[in-house]
Amino acid sequence: MTEIDTTGTRELAKALVGLSHHVLHMFNDIGRGHDLTAQQTELVCAVIVRDRVRMSDLGKVMHLEKSNLSGLVDRTEKRGLIMRRRDPEDRRVTYVELTEEGRQVATSTHCEVTRRLNDLVAQLPAEVQLSLTEVVEKITES
Amino acid sequence: MTEIDTTGTRELAKALVGLSHHVLHMFNDIGRGHDLTAQQTELVCAVIVRDRVRMSDLGKVMHLEKSNLSGLVDRTEKRGLIMRRRDPEDRRVTYVELTEEGRQVATSTHCEVTRRLNDLVAQLPAEVQLSLTEVVEKITES
DNA sequence: ATGAACAGTTCTTATCATGAACCATAGAGG
DNA sequence: CCTCTATGGTTCATGATAAGAACTGTTCAT
């Protein structure tokens, strides 16, 4: 690995870490308007784009331990935004669904999230925009 | 905004959020080997690529409130990895520096971080790789 | 039936997040 | 030389998050 390579790698690392903070911090900003924490905000967004989700899948999406997720769902349920529903087919699994209020909040926040991400990538050249999703998915799926 | 646009935006949002989790979770994985939390790991990495840093700059880089950063620096200092040093020119500011042990840990973890990020982007076509840093920086700097 | 695997919960401990109040220092202007 | 204001950090209190271990129920294959 040459000097130039190292430097480039270091800059890429800085950039990617900065971007990641930027993206996840959005949930903070956006949630604040609804008096939600970042995690609660991401939770309702994750649910609304999937309609209803298993706890275990939520854990994977949000990178949370199951014990941790239990607490988050507790707090968000107490806030009246979501509810748990047992799967009658397999009574071990529980689905998370939005309440009516939860749906409203989630619609608003998720809309804001996608709007901001859109604004972010809007600065990029058109052909890069088109391939960006694919590129990012490819990066992540490993 | 058309239907197709909306769908594309939604997928992009999922992808970017997934990538961000992936990137920041790295600090978790890598830190675990050294019995460090994700934040402590990112802290020492942030210091080693900048040699010494003001508290206030660290807060910006890591998206932390100053009170929060104070605690993190406390804990990491207690672990023996960093130390604070007052700026004699302006006695309000304090710089964070690595101890000898901190430098070793930071070198190892930072190397691992860049290696993993490199592996991530290695899957991408060459011309995308070349422009990626620039693209990501442009996305973030707004 | 029995036992292994799975999905969630609960508990404990340390860490992190946030805002408000606070302290010390620096840099004006009068 | 004094205020006044701004700045950089710390401290404190409270709630939220992280991680692991032990536990409850449920399913499924012997």
Q: What does it look like?
A:
The structure is a homodimer of 142-residue chains. Chain A has a single domain (3-140), classed as Orthogonal Bundle (Arc Repressor Mutant, subunit A). In chain A, a hairpin with a 7-residue loop joins strand 2 (82-86) and strand 3 (94-98). The model of chain A has no long low-confidence stretch (mean pLDDT 90). In chain A, helix 1 packs across helix 2 (38-48), helix 1 (3-32) packs antiparallel against helix 5 and helix 2 packs across helix 5 (100-122). The first copy, chain A, starts with a helix and ends with a helix. Chain A is globular. Chain A is mainly α and 142 residues long. The first copy, chain A, is built from six helices and three strands. Chain A has a three-stranded antiparallel sheet with strand order 1-3-2. Helix content of chain A is 70%, strand content 8%. At the A-B interface, helix 1, helix 5 and helix 6 of A face helix 1, helix 5 and helix 6 of B. Chain A binds a DNA duplex (30 and 30 nucleotides) through residues 28, 37-40, 54-56, 64-72, 74-75, 90-94.
